[in-house]
User: Fold these one by one.
Assistant:
Number 1:
Amino acid sequence: MYSYININELVIDTMTYLKLRKIYTHYCNHEFDLLGSGWQHISYNMEPKGFCKVKYSSLSMSYYGNIARKRLKHKCTSSYIPINWFVDYRSGFFFAPWKYSSWKKCYTIMDKKYGVDIKCPWELGRFYHFVQMAVLAIADESLRENIIKRFYRNESSRENSSMDMSYGCFDKGC
């Protein structure tokens, strides 16, 4: 595979390195700052801030969280809490992967439920945080193995099928 980036020529100054270490700590705690949300812990038992005083909760969210934990039990410690790839972290609405498998279904529910936004889980699912973690892995060789394991664990915790609303959105090139 060809890369346009020569990692041997990549120079990371001290200030950038310190910033990357700080956000690395957030990412390790499954805290993300997406779409101007501020740092939020995103899990299957999270407490959303709400959107315009509207908060949603779902029994299927904790049910699916248990499924995700079971799927990862041979790859992670028992204390590991998976990232919730399917939640609108502002309103708390859970886009159950077996129910919202296409862009059309996602947009339909947004028209019916006030404050629900599919862009929240889509942003998280784009894995932008791993670009920063990859740069840190280049700068700090002692973190490489941990970052690679985290990538593998996070990718494994996703529903990699056409039933996932993140993948379903590619029907229309979102």
Note: The longest strand covers residues 31-32.
Number 2:
Amino acid sequence: MPLSRGDLLMPLAATSSRTILGFDYGARRIGVAVGQELLGSARALEVVGNGEQGPHWERIDAIVAEWKPDVLVVGLPLTMAGEEQATSRGARRFGEQLAARYRLDVHAHDERLTSIEADSRFALARRSGQRRQKDAAIKDAIAAQVLLESWFAECSAGSRDERASDRGSA
């Protein structure tokens, strides 16, 4: 069941926070997650179909209309050596389509190990009774959640580094 914008808790109404949608691109499925930059946290939303005819754009249109994101993040599947591969080109193409379609900034972010982390989280949820085996399709959305959390962490670290270098040069 997809979440709605109202399901996310907004702790400080007066504080602006960008809404970010994350996409874990795959040839058959695209996991989608939403996050709030202020909190640095994300939630798995749903999995959208993808195939020879391309992504299920009507569903993605509905998600974008509902969540009104400020930025989009697409997972870039790299090899463990950090090199691009065939699926990387598909993810980049998908990111370009998103940028053209929604006129939003789209960031590619290294998604190495997100699927392994998603599998781990799903297994933990199954053991605790929160998920059942038939819910396995949601793993792609969980991978998108992990991707966004990683992106938030990297952005936060970059901000800390910039603030530290600003203090050092003053």
Note: Residues 1-15, 160-170 have pLDDT under 50 and may be disordered.
Number 3:
Amino acid sequence: MKIKAITKRVKVTVKGILPFYLFTFLPLSANAQDVIVNPDISYAGTPRQYELAGLSVKGVDDYEDYVLTGLSGLTIGQTLDVPGTEITEAVKRYWKHGLFSKVAITADSIVGSKIYLCIHLATRPRVSGIRYYGLKKTEREEMESRLGIMKGSQITPNMLDRAKILAKKYFDEKGYKNADIQITQRDDVTGKNEVILDFKSLKSYTSVPLDVHLMISEPLKYIADFAKAGADIITFHIESDSDPVETIKAIREAGCKPSVSVKPGTPAEAIFPYLELVDMVLVMTVEPGFGGQSFMADMMPKARAIRDEITKRGLDVMVEVDGGISEKNAALCAENGIDVLVSGSTIFGASDATEMIADIRANAEAAFKA
């Protein structure tokens, strides 16, 4: 049976008048059996040539259809192979623009030697807001200007990577070394296809390792927090309530070096069971609690006993002292096998902190060489 024509019904609504329908006649010359709706095209099969008779777009409301179809590079009336390179290249063009999170081209119908294609697209989300964490107000304003990501900006594949590079450069210029920058996106439940960007930064003022001394009763609870804040070495007290082995394990799992400390009243032997597990032992040369106390020289035998035990076992463990350390006792500490000297009040109370640090270092190194 031949189909001479098909009627197309168009609904028209005029204000104040009930809707009515217009009927138009579209001549067709194909046989009924030549019309294939939603054909299943095997891309493993032999290509066939068709004339592109129609091109439509679904899934995107942000752009006019003629703009979207124009991006494909396909032209009504052209001859193309199905499957073939023309459609493959059209898909690549859409991906190349970076505006879409989904691209697919399917055949709506085939009428004889003519094919009607549909382009299925989904646009990448747009930014509905940016939340900054770890920045002062002035820094946030400068960062917003530097990144150039505004409300309404469309998320592209390289946008977040580029933003991290720009943020890292900004922090380097400000003197923050090894700043940790995280930019993540989460869906904005109040908007259509919109996301909120969370910008988080952990700034470090120095590339020198950060040795964090936790004088708290339950250090195990806070290991992850201090590690995240940038600690390189975490020291806890053997006298604390947390299990020493579990605490050391948590410190290593957090990517930091474990160190254990003893107060003046705790014997050296209390540390011995953990020497193989730690990277450093801290011997307190004052009672913990406040700065400015006098150096307790009677803690040197304890430090020497710990150093001798480390040497006896052939371990690579540093010994540190903290409390009342100055240029006057630095040599004594070094003579007793101490590697690391912690000084607070002496340095910050000096008229020239840099010179004081140099003096402490020089006296200790001289004793090492003696």
Note: The first strand starts at residue 5 and ends at 14.
Number 4:
Amino acid sequence: MDVAERIRDLREQVRYHDYRYYVLDDPVISDGAYDTLYRELLELEAEHPELVSPDSPTQRVRGQVRDEFRTVRHPRPMLSLGNAFNPEELRGWRDRAARLLPGDARDLAYVVEPKIDGLSVILHYQDGAFTLGATRGNGVQGEDITANLRTVRWVPLHGPAFTPPPAPPLEGGGEEPSPSRGGATDVSPPEAGATDVSP
């Protein structure tokens, strides 16, 4: 298989897995296996820029907004975390982060925690009351899942009791942690939390 064929094959695989993950909430490969495919595609396109096409999965924001939910636009983009797969990439991240800090703050200590996968959501509060909950979607717009989130016990329906009225608008983002569904331990779907909030 030549490079152009491999790139076409990788694009088809990535599109298929994006659809299973973002639209169907039913991934069939692990996050690590997906990241390996996506990274190979990125690397081949970087080595052969003449083969990059505008419809490549690497050229667009991943994720789609599903039709069964009302679409809402985020006040500011919900960005996604990047990956580091080896010590060299981790050091590269550290060096980039350190360049953003003043010189006297570059001696950093780190806290490492397990990554928690789940459904990324943003919660909006107006005058202390929960008014809107949305998925990350494609980072620019997401799905309005307010009614569903009102049934999730960990979502506060009111802001802190100590905030005097009128409370300022408040936005909070996070992930609804969730185990792999169906007992499949090799699949770690970040959108498996949608089982609590999807129709």
Note: The beta strands are 71-73, 118-126, 129-135, 141-143, 170-177.
